[in-house]
Specification:
There is one protein chain. The protein is mainly alpha-helical and 155 residues long. Helix 3 runs antiparallel to helix 4, helix 5 packs antiparallel against helix 7 and helix 6 crosses helix 7. It starts with a helix and ends with a helix.
Amino acid sequence: MVQNVTVCARLQNRSGKGELLRVIFEYRAGRVWYNKFMLNRVITIASLISAAIITLMLFFTTPTDLGPFGVFLFIMLVYVVMFGVACLAVKIFTGVVSRRKTMTKRDYATAGAVAFWPIMMLLTISLGTSNLILSTIIATLFVVVATWILNKLMD
């Protein structure tokens, strides 16, 4: 237990932002320690890799070539990309409105719910809704209800 506290104290006492950013992983007492910037980096890297894979899928394959698993993978990759974009938007919004520099669990949950909007749009369009306004309203209502439920659960 004492070793864990010393690692946390060493991470907090580092001087300069550049040195803190360089320390991503630190192995001590059988555990991997990370700083507060690691989650944002993982989300950014996963979003960029997903965007590259989506680009390759769109230019070099067709949905019939991909099959059901490929279509599922495409939808999951779209969600990962949109989660990265939503995290960036929520971070900017919370930075402007509440002057916080770090995101909380509630912010990540909100970003996750907002990132589901394009998936809901694809779902409503694939179910045969020909009216774009109705599809947008349904997807928006779903995201609003999901965000409200997540915020109630986080209280």
